[in-house]
Amino acid sequence: EFDTLNLDAGSLKRLRAELQQLAASDAPEAQAADLATAEPASLAVAAALLAETRWLQPEDLERARRLHHWLQQATGCYEIEFVDDASLPLAELRQVNQPIGKLWQWFVNEFAHTPRTWQAYRELMHR
Question: How far is Cα 88 from Cα 10, in angstroms, rounded to an integer?
Fold first, then answer.
């Protein structure tokens, strides 16, 4: 399963560090697909990192934006929306975006819970 509970502590720590690094920089889109293919559990880790976002500083918003974009690129799911309106105050952006981490966790649990469900989802998306 892709569930992070099945990862050993070292693998989980490595994936978290790699995803935090991706969230701190503009990573090439191909890197998202490569990581999701090589390390499917990275989907669960990225969703957890997004759910942990505190939304207190502009840097939090940027990190969340990158994680969200990475998850979109890795999964092909664009239905979970991220509000990115520079005219809105951070408090309002926090309020509208805070649920996306939980939505991504639901998505990963539902569609990428096991290699079989992830493969079925990918096949349906590419029809």
Answer: 40
